[in-house]
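=== RUN LOG ===
request id: a7f3
mode: sequence -> structure
chains: 1
length: 367
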Amino acid sequence: MWRRFRRAAGLLQALLITGLPFLVINGQSALRFDIPQLKLYFFGSVIWIKELYLILFAVLFFLLFIISITAVFGRIWCGWLCPQTVLLDLSESISRLFGGLPRRWLQRIVLLPFSALVSLTILWYFVPPVKTMQSLFSDALITGFFLVQWAVIYAELAFMGRKFCTTICPYAMMQNALFDRDTLVIEYDRSREDECMKCHDCVKACPVGIDIKEGLQTDCIACAECIDACVAVTVERNMNPFPGYKGKLLRPKAFWLGGATLLAGVILVVMVYSRPEVTFLITRDPEQLPQRINRYSWSLYNNTDKLQSFELSVEGDFIIIGETALLLEPYSFKKGKVLVRSEGGKDVVVFTLEGDGLTIEKQAGFL
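=== RESULT ===
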């Protein structure tokens, strides 16, 4: 009963995670971190590493989201959506197709290509998929990361498997602190214990090897395999299964946690997409130069998918010396230096950046 829904949810999530790097918005990956330029492509926008406040707020949003889901739905992520669970379930299903052959070794063989795909998917979130595949075995750095990740992921899946969920996974440990009496869990109906056939099929089906009849346990990943196993037996007797989901989803805690998460998400989106199209920063270098000349360092960030061209100038009794015609590629940044000589102006110099319908003014001190 539940396995079909769980399998569909897992495959949908796997397709989403694997396919997202191939989604292109404004000529760039929908979600990808560019390590050389320290910027995050974020669904048609770009977040620079200097905008640390956005990254911190994004982390806050995801923490609220995780807390909300866990407090209401319990370990639904572990049993339904965790990539480890999805891969292990899928490899087990494939290994069953080969009948009497050793299932454990078949599963390990099946996990080899799956682990490679996971390693590639991780790389795609840092290097565009096409570029990754073109340089997979010609670029030593990409090849090295691919092989090391493949080996680590395969070793964890093939040799630790479900033990990782019950002993090491930090998220599993955190969930236990977020549960309350209304959190969705799988519980054995003790009021009907005398009716139980004691077939122990629920124990045999449990991927983490617990006995649900002994009560709620921290190792339970809420996968509902025990429910399906029990249904297969009780349906012939026109009985309801003994284990089942129990919890209260619609309650005040769910509403205020969900509301806080939604509010944080809306604020994050507004913060990302309300930024100026171009960010211009300029500061005076501390070094002393003769003849009333100061040196200034400037940085220019293009947050759009458009090519931008600008002219840099100064106002008043100052003369600018250096490159003033600036061309900025989409989703790129540029930095440089200019000299400014005073022809009578004092204390403050006003820089004006004009072009493509934008005018930006910045002030900097002059000595």
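=== NOTES ===
The mean pLDDT is 90.
The CA atoms of residues 118 and 343 lie 63 Å apart.
=== END ===
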